[in-house]
Specification:
The protein is an alpha+beta fold. It has one domain: Alpha-Beta Plaits (2-Layer Sandwich). It is about 15% helix and about 20% strand. It is built from 2 helices and 4 strands. The chain has helices at about 15-20, 55-60, and strands at about 5, 25-30, 40-45, 65. The chain has a two-stranded antiparallel sheet with strand order 1-4. The protein has a two-stranded antiparallel ribbon with strand order 2-3. The mean pLDDT is about 95.
Length: about 70
């Protein structure tokens, strides 16, 4: 089951969620850009996610939603 959902077209690549993640499983995808021209956030290891929602709390643009 997918725990994290990203509205990638809203992401501005600020990296606040990346620094807030205690498991260090979020990163900016430097291989592509979204419709706004930014590198969107991705989860590199969905199984390691503990659904703490720190990333969603830190995101100023409400890009991330967390299912528990």
């Amino acid at each position: 089951m997918q725990k994290l959902k990203f509205s990638e077209d809203l992401c501005k690549g600020c990296g606040l969620c990346v620094s807030a993640c205690p498991k260090k499983i979020l990163e900016l995808d430097t291989s592509r850009v979204n419709s706004k021209g930014y590198n969107p956030v991705i989860c590199s290891n969905e199984d390691a996610c503990i659904s703490c929602a720190f990333c969603a709390t830190m995101c100023p643009d409400l890009v991330i939603s967390v299912d528990k």
